[in-house]
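This part of the workshop introduces the protein records we will be handling. An example says more than a description, so a record of this kind follows:
>
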Amino acid sequence: MLRFAHVCKRVLIKEILDTHFPMAVTIKDIASKAGVSHTTVSRALRNHPSISQHTVERIQELAAEMGYVPNTVARNLKNSRSSVMGVVVRRFVDPFLSEVLDGIESVLTAHGYSIFLTQSKRDPQKIDSIIRNLSEQRVAGAILCSTEIGAEERQRLLRFGVPSVLVNSQLIPDMDFAIYNDDIFGIKQIVTHLANLGHRRIAYIGHQYAGRETVKRRQGFEEGMAESGLKILPGFIVNGSNGRPSGGAEGATQLLKRPNLPTAIVCFNDMMAVGAIHHLEQTGVKIPAEVSVTGFDNIEISKFVSPLLTTFNQPKFELGQKASLMILERINHGKMTANHPQRVSAPDDQKSVMLRGELIVRASTAKPPTAEI
């Protein structure tokens, strides 16, 4: 009698649990209801090309009706690969990176990946911690955006089984598996635009600590001036201590000390241009009637400052997209991804890709004062 009561109690508990906490639907459950094999269901849920489109649609509709939720943890353990992609940026608040991240997300989410986002802050200890975290999280790969992570750190990631791709990195040692903007071309386009307007006294405000970009953009300025037949006057290349508006204001302060003010200023990026414009106007210099000012990047704020900023549009969204395609290619070696069977488009032997943007002319540039033409 006691045993019978115990059995009844177990049955009652099971009924309560099944009613309020139903068991998760499995692939076997779907296969049983559909009258197909476990393998067929598994492949249909992954859009495998060996399964007909009709069967794929039928299985996926049935899975949705039954409330099937993929067990990504089990899948990752089975494949010995995470469905998480690491993305490292220098600073979360960098407005340039928001569109790059949009491009990254648009590709990775379509291929079934989520993103583990972290920032380096130019801190060697922080970077060391990031390397450990990426390996401990068992990320499938890492996209390194505008960071100081160099060859040594990338080799450590690779030893942990984490391939990486660089995006506009500050320390691209050998340019392998990298996506970057042609900074030299961009700055030269800006200089040519100013020269065509009639400017002769053109200055440049650089970013003192931006690594590769500092070198390339200054090189573009020097080459652009030479190709336009213009000389760089003494003291007309200065640097700000950061790439923010305060850095641009620092550069403008230095230029205001020169005996003759330049009629045009090329700034390292849009944020520095905003700071330079603000500082010049605070001292009574009219933009662009007396001095034209240009930026670089075409971030959102460039379309809302006064005057609207002439700048160079980096293909930010495309940088993110191509970086994602490249890391997927490295991970899958041209094979199909688990959740997206189409082959990614970046060829395996394309180890570095240089993109070119376009000049955006707005109201912050104009012809120089009449005496300068």
Remarks:
- The two ends are 109 Å apart (CA to CA).
- Residues 2-68 form a domain with the 434 Repressor (Amino-terminal Domain) fold (CATH 1.10.260.40).
- The longest strand covers residues 84-89.
